[in-house]
Predict the structure.
Amino acid sequence: MSHSLVLMSVFFILGILIGNRLPLAPGWLWAVLAVLMVAGAVSLKLGRRALGHQLLLALVLTAGALRVQIASPWIDPTHYLSRDRLGPGRFQVQVVGDPFSGADQIRAPVEIRSVIEGERWVPLSGQARLLVNAGSGPLVRPAYGEVLELDGVLESPGDRFVGPGRRLKDQWASEGFHAVLKPTGQIKVQARDRGSPIHASLYALRHRISGVLDQTHPPEVAALIRALLLGIRDLAPEVMADYRITGTYHILSISGCHVALVAVALAALFTGLKAPRKLSAILIVVVLIAYAFMTGESPSVLRATFMACVFILGQLLARPLSIYTSLAFSAIALLLIDPLSIFTASFQLSFLAVLSIAYLTPPLMTRLDFLPPYLNSLVSTSLSASLGTAPVLATSFGSLSLVSPLANLVVVPLFGIIMPIAMLAIVGSLFSPWVPFFFGAANYGFVTLQHRLIHGLAQVPFASVDVSEIPPVVWVVYS
């Protein structure tokens, strides 16, 4: 069963790739899907299992192609791409996520509801990113759940590329939007509190935690912990550049490592409280889902949370799922929800990192058995992840960090110290306003050490090399 699920996930992914590149009509794909289902059922009934399995794989391939076609926004007749409503206009939008407030710009996910045509409002749909710049007048701060009316320009990325063979519009589409909305006049708030009360409460908790960090931690410590714990990246540009050069930028994005650490902390807590195993697993899953929504519901967070929940619930089964089966199931489920996410570097890195660690770490540990066990595990895991993700990093960003394995040896252990201390600071703030100061002072040394070590590695000659001129086929052969 496990091998079949892995094979099915491969064919489903192939179907998505084919459907994204070829102009296949959904109606014909539905017809092919129906024929394959009938043919497969007849084959199995006649005892021709081999033919039945081949038809099943063909069905999965077709389903992948159909899913990506259905995901295309122009199938919705009211979508702004379907109606060719890019450009200037007067729009009514609703803020559907937690806005990010930077020093000179605010970015807010919005759902477009209507647009002025002539003298009347007509329905319009589709998500966009509202970009409010400081230079465009008073910096308006939209909030979750608000309904806004504004004059603005709706812009698409066109055919711009963000890396070799990687289109910006594919990256935007995978994040749920296809255009940015830039205000050209005053923004009016038409209504408030139109969002989900649960989302509003979780976003309020996020802001409260951020406020506690600002009040009780030095600025550079608060900025790093916000990135590690809440997914808010407002670090200094030079600090972020050092993390990019050393191949450790992934630590600043909420991902599998962060979700896993939260899960481990919760597991330790429930174990200490002697909670039943099944109840603990269910509570951990509930908290992880709440954490995913609180940190902004980015695709990478939802992906990591889903994979963690599959693994945790899988351990409750009589026959726990293997890591490969869990990955295959997670890939199919996530791509059924959002097939376009496969074209993003974050999706590819999430799965390649786990897959390469599972596949490469055991043989590497065997070859490095002369090292102490703990160091052997760290080195092998870091090297496995670096080797497995190198092709995606190279083709996505045009550069490759040669110090990444060493840098990750520094960052991962410190990350495992900084995060728990930060969690204790947040929990401690519920009992006394002075507790976070103590943990903030403790974290100052670890954060400073991490920044200095990363900065030092970023200054090493050839720490990062330009590989943008290397043909993608080379990385295919490497893989």
In short: Residues 201-478 form one domain.
